[in-house]
Automatic annotation (TrEMBL):
The keyword Aminoacyl-tRNA synthetase does not apply. SUPFAM superfamilies: Winged helix' DNA-binding domain. InterPro entries: HTH_MarR-typ (IPR000835), Metal_resp_HTH_trans_reg (IPR052067), Tscrpt_reg_MarR-type_CS (IPR023187), WH-like_DNA-bd_sf (IPR036388), WH_DNA-bd_sf (IPR036390). Coiled coil: none annotated. This is MarR family transcriptional regulator. PROSITE patterns: HTH_MARR_1, HTH_MARR_2. Gene3D superfamilies: Winged helix-like DNA-binding domain superfamily/Winged helix DNA-binding domain. Keywords: DNA-binding, Transcription, Transcription regulation. SMART domains: HTH_MARR. It comes from the Bacteria. It comes from Sphingomonas aracearum. GO terms for molecular function: DNA binding; DNA-binding transcription factor activity. Residues 9-142 form the HTH marR-type domain.
Length: 152
């Protein structure tokens, strides 16, 4: 990294945050207008679809969303009949979230749109650039987790 004064516009954590906010904001508006889903709700629907049964705590760990965000989104999805709660056979204190039939139908409608949005956002990148970007993001995530661990 270059020495010198901090210039916000070239500070990588800032650039990453700006890019993330712009991408998330664009996608959030589309999901909301087409499917009535917030980003946390969409993430929960997707994670539940991928796992078939998962606790709210596990969702928070996988998505890095806080407990309150996960709880509120799960409640909203349950009220809409998109997810169902069932007793956790291995832990009487928690419940497993499952997609309802309506939730599965919604997921099957939204998933292709998500892939289309990904293509629109990243279609100008080569496969090699996307592989590099993904690798770099994973490395940045791992470094952030190490810093988080040091702060504890």
């Amino acid at each position: 990294m270059a020495a010198g004064p901090l210039v916000l516009d070239t500070f990588l954590p800032y650039r990453l945050s700006i890019a993330s906010n712009l991408v998330s904001g664009a996608i959030a508006r589309i999901y909301q207008s087409l499917f009535g889903l917030s980003i946390p709700e969409w993430r929960i629907v997707t994670v539940v679809a991928e796992t078939d049964a998962i606790t709210q705590q596990e969702i928070g760990q996988r998505t890095r969303m806080d407990k309150v965000t996960v709880s509120r989104a799960a409640i909203a999805l349950e009220r809409r009949g998109l997810i169902e709660r069932r007793a956790h056979p291995g832990d009487g204190r928690s419940q497993l979230l499952h997609l309802s039939a309506t939730g599965r139908t919604l997921y099957e409608s939204v998933a292709p749109k998500a892939k289309e949005l990904e293509e629109r956002l990243f279609g100008d990148f080569t496969a090699a650039e996307l592989d590099t970007l993904t690798s770099m993001l994973r490395r940045a995530e791992a470094a952030a987790l190490r810093l988080e661990g040091e702060a504890r």
